[in-house]
Design a protein that fits this description.
It is built from 15 helices and 16 strands. By secondary structure, it is α+β, with helices and mostly antiparallel strands. Bound molecules: iron/sulfur cluster (2 copies). One iron/sulfur cluster binds next to helix 12 and helix 13. This is Cytochrome c oxidase accessory protein CcoG.
Length: 471
């Protein structure tokens, strides 16, 4: 065995450092156009909504507040408790199905127009363009030596990025902690350690993701990019280059010769505007976030050279092959039907939801007890939670066979919004008044208004069992 000899290893890409190639920073050219106006409008709505929503009030309290310490989520007029976890599960299932539906229909339109990563990156890029100029100027600035002008521009950009990132981080924590107290507390140095940690975490996550990582989040971190292709079919809306019309490209000598040439003039504008740095002319790629920047860029070129727009366009694979596109197809209809049914059930459950929780716990230490006067008693603990955002008065009653009565229990009591009360109650039976047997009983708690008017939509009953001795 020749232990001293080694297999010679050559680096196939000498520019690469080991297994990793240095990332080439993508400097995107700004492009105007119909789809980019739409994108600008949608990302503005996403970011402004995110920043404004926690400042809204509803009935004098923060309209959207995920109050984790008190384990209650206020969403406008409704408070969700841990017992309402089913609603959260439903909401998540409906959202996931809606995303599938949109993906089957319109590809990754969510990524291009409303994804938070896209929205914040676009805002960060607008700030970058404001301080450092367009693509050409930014590339020049990157190569320029570090002089006062460059430092000033870079400082302005990073400070503005950090301000937006801080607003994002503060707002995020403001969804979980009352924002009208959080913001003044933050600027007066009164926020606790955990609060500061989360504000810092989300500030730097925003700064890093939207300022530096950008398309890398979509390419390497987002799971949706990986599995969305399995949802595509030949009728899904995609951004595509019309190869039949564009090829062969008019470049070099072909530009001026009489040789037949396609409409693509190989200006590479579609590549320069692409946020993920791909060339859509190479075909459909998983990196494409369907932002349509290349559509707008190419349309401008086509306009300039007097050719019809749409060399790159929203289309379907069937349309590109000259076949008919089927908008209504079984998979889409199935998703739509399931979403509609789930939304109907969700809305129905929400409307009929009773904001009152009643649980009954039997005394586990003693099945029954016989008092000095001979009566038989069972003890229970009623756990009552007012899940509403207003206080209510309640009436407690017992539904049980004749002879069983409620003793040592308040018949009327009031709970403030979100208050939980533990009520010890006793059910008693007098064996001298009649035979006493074990029986099913039911405790009913009913909201009452004024004197004795009942609010029937606010009542809950809970069953239990009364246990008596055998003889
Ligand atoms: S923008 Fe249009 S014309 Fe220019 S390279 Fe891209 S596809 Fe060709
Ligand atoms: S290929 Fe076109 S649509 Fe896809 S990400 Fe790039 S610019 Fe956007």
């Amino acid at each position: 065995m020749n232990a001293g000899r080694r297999i010679p290893v050559e680096q196939s890409h000498p520019e690469a450092n080991g297994l990793y190639a240095k990332r080439q920073r993508i400097q995107i050219k700004d492009v105007k156009g119909h789809y980019q106006r739409l994108r600008d409008a949608s990302v503005r709505v996403v970011v402004v909504l995110y920043l404004v929503l926690p400042w809204l009030t509803w009935n004098g309290r923060q309209a959207i507040l995920f109050n984790l310490p008190d384990r209650r989520f206020n969403i406008f007029g409704i408070t969700f408790w841990p017992q309402d976890f089913l609603f959260l599960a439903w909401a998540l299932i409906i959202s996931a199905l809606a995303l599938f539906f949109v993906t089957v229909f319109a590809g990754r339109v969510y990524c291009g127009y409303v994804c938070p990563q896209t929205a914040w990156t676009r805002w960060f890029m607008a700030i970058e363009q404001f301080f450092e100029g367009d693509r050409h100027q930014r590339i020049k600035l990157d190569k320029a030596p570090l002089r006062l002008g460059k430092v000033a521009r870079r400082t302005g950009k990073h400070v503005s990025w950090l301000v937006l990132a801080l607003a994002t981080g503060l707002t995020f924590v403001g969804y979980f902690s009352p924002i009208r107290e959080l913001v003044p507390d933050f600027f007066t140095g009164q926020v606790g350690g955990w609060g500061l940690f989360w504000i810092g975490f989300f500030t730097f996550a925003t700064y890093g993701n939207a300022g530096f990582m950008r398309e890398q989040v979509c390419l390497y971190m987002c799971p949706y990019a990986r599995f969305q292709s399995v949802m595509f079919d030949r009728d899904t809306l995609i951004v595509s280059y019309d190869q039949a019309r564009g090829e062969p490209r008019r470049r070099g000598a072909r530009k001026h010769s009489e040789e037949p040439a396609g409409d693509c003039v190989d200006c590479a504008l579609c590549v320069q505007v692409c946020p993920t740095g791909i060339d859509i002319r190479d075909g459909l790629q998983y990196e494409c976030v369907t932002c349509a920047a290349c559509v707008d860029a190419c349309d401008q070129v086509m306009e300039r050279i007097g050719r019809p727009k749409g060399l790159i366009r929203y289309t379907t694979e069937n349309a590109l092959d000259g076949r008919q596109t089927h908008l209504l197809r079984p998979r889409l209809l199935a998703y739509g039907a399931v979403i509609l049914v789930l939304i109907g059930l969700f809305a129905g459950s929400l409307v009929t939801r009773v904001p009152l929780q009643v649980d009954v716990l039997r005394d586990r230490n003693q099945l029954y007890r016989v008092t000095g006067s001979g009566t038989i008693e069972n003890s229970y603990r009623l756990e009552i939670l007012n899940k509403d955002q207003s206080p209510h008065s309640y009436q407690l009653s017992l539904e049980a066979p004749a002879g069983l009565t409620l003793v040592n229990a308040p018949r009327r009591f009031t709970l403030s919004a979100g208050e939980h009360r533990s009520l010890p109650v006793t059910v008693s039976a007098d064996p001298y008044a009649g035979a006493v047997e074990s029986a099913d009983i039911r405790f009913r708690v009913r909201a009452v208004q004024g004197a004795d008017a009942e609010a029937p939509d606010m009542e809950m009953a809970h069953e239990s069992r009364f246990i008596a001795p055998r003889s």
